[in-house]
Each structure stands twice: as C-alpha cells, then as structure tokens.
Design a protein that fits this description.
Elements (H helix, E strand, L loop, with lengths): L3 H15 L4 H30 L3 H17 L6 H29 L5 H8 L1 H13 L11 H18 L6 H4 L10 H38 L5 H29 L4 H19 L3 H29 L6 H30 L1 H32 L1
C-alpha cells in the first residue's frame, strides 16, 4: 500500500501534469534513481537497526519521513524537484520496511515461517485494492490523493507500533553457532544464502519482464485484447495466489519441508513460461500466464519468509535482508536490456524461452540445496 498505488497511478499523473511531452523520460529517470536509492537505503537502515539493537524507533521514523515526503509530491513544481523527493521518499520508505522485515525474523519462530510467507501473499492484493480504492469518487473529495495513501499506511503500521508486543524469541536473536566450534556450518549457511539469493533473482527477472510487457504480448496475439482484460487476469491471479500461498505455507510448516514449495513454484513457473512461448492461441497463452503468475507469486511470498531461516547471523539480519532486497530492484535494471535484445529480433517467444530457462535453473538450485538446508538448520 505504501508504494504500489503511488508508483503505478499517482506518479504518472504528477509527471504528466509537469510536462506531458517528457513524462515518459521523467518516469524512467525516477524509476532508475528510486531503485538505486531503495537498494542502498534498505541495506543501510537494516544494518542501522542491527547495530542499535532496536527496530521500532526506526520503523516509526521511516513512517513519519516517508509519509511527509509523499505529501510533498503534489507541490513539486519541476521535474528535478519531483525526482529528488522520490529519491528521499524511497529512503524513508526503506527506513520503515527494512527494520520491519528484520523484526519478523526476530519474533516469528521457524515453525511458523511458512504461514508468514502465505500471509505475505496478501500484500500485493491489498496494494492493488488500495490503488482501486483511491481512484473511486468517494476518495477524491480532497485535492491530493496522496493523503489517502498516507492514511492507509498509518492504519496498517500504526497499530503494530502502538499495540504490538511480540513474544520474545531469544533463540532467534542469539548467535547460533560459534565459528570456532563448527567453522564449516556458517560457511555452508552462507552458500545456502547465496543459492536462495540467486534463485529469487532469476524468478524476479521473469516476473518483472511479464509485469512490464504482458499487455503488449497479449495484443500481439489478439489486437482486440484490452487493458481491462489484462487487469482482470492480474486480479484473478493475485486473488488465487493468496489462498494457494497460505495453503502451501501451512503445509510446509506441518511437513517441515520449507524449500519444497519453492522448488515446485519455480518449476511450475518455468512450465508456464514454456507454454506461453509455444502457445498457438490466446486461451492457451492465458492459461500459461495464469500458471506462471500463480507459481511465481507463491514462490516470491514464501521465499521472503523462508529466507529468514538461512541468514548466517541473527546479529546482521537487517543488513542481510537488505542484500536480499536487491533481488527486487536489480531486475528493473536487467529486464529492459533482455527485452530490447530479444523481442525486436526474435519475438516474445525467445524472451519467454530464456525466462523459462532462468526459472528452471532456480528450481534446480533450490532442489539441490534441500538436503544441505536441512543439515544446516538441524545443526543451528
């Protein structure tokens, strides 16, 4: 809710109001600068909350700063002022988000990480819903829609800061292993962390590519396919993903197999992309995308929570989660070049085959680390 309605709906309107002719360039620069700012800020503030030993004050400061800067957006009178505010807003937003994610790692036991991942699947759906709400006539009685976004965020984060009293979990915040006693285990954990990071990056590249170019691909198959049709498919996939991710997360907790849903998610995503690449008709193409969209949404939600299991040191949890956050920002820098290199010359089929290969590699990496992961987790 903090960024989805603003970046997808409100920012393009503000950019167009400043200069309709240069709005596209302005949005591209804002996206690039914002991604870099978010990447650095997430690592920095995650590390700062690690060093300070407290999370709540950083979350509160980030909430106040990001909300204040968002309310300044309508008053930007030129493009560079708007870009500067967005860069600072990304810093404030990640000052809130980085300690918040680390706080979950401090307070949610490993046997509930799957449920946490399932609940995280609700976030994209609520983000999309909030975007729909602020465009309704009832939410436009004030001049600046950014106020609605700020109120949504305060309503979601404020109760946690005021009333949240999570049970202490000492086993989640103390040093798990002494390097001098078992030096091979921390190194194995770091290898597992590297595999988890790479696997998520590969799936995120595929997800970002589809998010950006799905409508163009559908229209290449059927010129009459409209924006509303694409939005309907998005909504269906996001809605179904919530229930599927919750079910998969609960199963992984009960079965004690946290990596298995990730392996299946990446594998089915690869299969969906393969179907999209060879689809002879629009209905089959849509079916392939639904398979990919569901599988990748479940993968990304559960991956976010299960990552907390493989971080090598609880004392650097916030910083390490910031490094994992790069998998969310780097694809936006990689994806345009992949698309420009393949689609004009070879069509969307070649792009989907490449993305299917990336997802398949992700599944293989996670499948081959499952036993190693169990050994590491049992030892720590």
């Amino acid at each position: 809710m903090a960024y989805m309605p603003f970046l997808t709906l409100l920012l393009p309107v503000r950019a167009t109001s400043l200069s309709a002719d240069t709005a596209l360039n302005l949005l591209a620069i804002a996206a690039f600068a914002g991604a870099i700012s978010a990447s650095i800020a997430n690592i920095a503030f995650g590390w700062a909350s690690d060093r300070s030993g407290v999370r709540r004050p950083w979350i509160l400061a980030g909430l106040v700063l990001s909300s204040s800067l968002l309310l300044c957006i309508p008053f930007a009178r030129d493009a560079w002022t708007l870009i500067a505010i967005i860069v600072l807003w990304q810093c404030g937003l990640n000052m809130m988000l980085a300690p918040l994610a680390a706080w979950a790692g401090d307070t949610i036991p490993d046997e509930q990480k799957g449920l946490l991942g399932g609940l995280l699947a609700v976030a994209p759906a609520l983000g999309a819903l909030s975007g729909a709400l602020i465009t309704l006539p009832g939410f436009q009685w004030w001049k600046y829609q950014e106020i609605s976004v700020v109120l949504f965020v305060i309503c979601m984060v404020g109760p946690l800061l005021i009333f949240g009293r999570p049970q202490a979990m000492p086993q989640l915040i103390r040093e798990r292993l002494a390097d001098a006693e078992m030096p091979e285990k921390p190194h194995a954990s770091r290898r597992a962390m590297a595999r988890m990071w790479t696997a998520r990056l590969l799936v995120q590249i595929a997800e970002a590519s589809l998010f950006a170019f799905l409508l163009l691909w559908f229209r290449s198959l059927d010129p009459g396919f409209g924006q509303n049709d694409t939005a309907t498919i998005f909504s269906i996939v996001l809605g179904l993903a919530v229930f599927c991710a919750l079910a998969a997360g609960r199963w992984s907790d009960r079965a004690g197999r946290p990596i298995t849903p990730l392996v299946w998610g990446a594998a089915i995503a690869a299969l969906g992309l393969l179907v999209m690449a060879i689809a002879p008709s629009l209905p089959i193409a849509i079916a392939g995308y639904v398979a990919f969209g569901l599988a990748s949404s479940i993968f990304l939600a559960l991956h976010s929570s299960q990552t907390l299991r493989v971080l090598p040191r609880p004392q650097t949890r916030g910083r390490d989660l910031g490094i994992f956050n790069l998998t969310n920002t780097l694809p936006s820098l990689i994806m345009p070049w992949l698309t420009l290199a393949l689609v004009p010359a070879y069509g969307f089929d070649a792009l989907f085959l490449l993305l299917a290969g990336l997802a398949a590699i992700s599944a293989f990496m996670l499948m081959t680390m499952s036993r190693q992961f169990r050994e590491i987790h049992d030892a720590i």
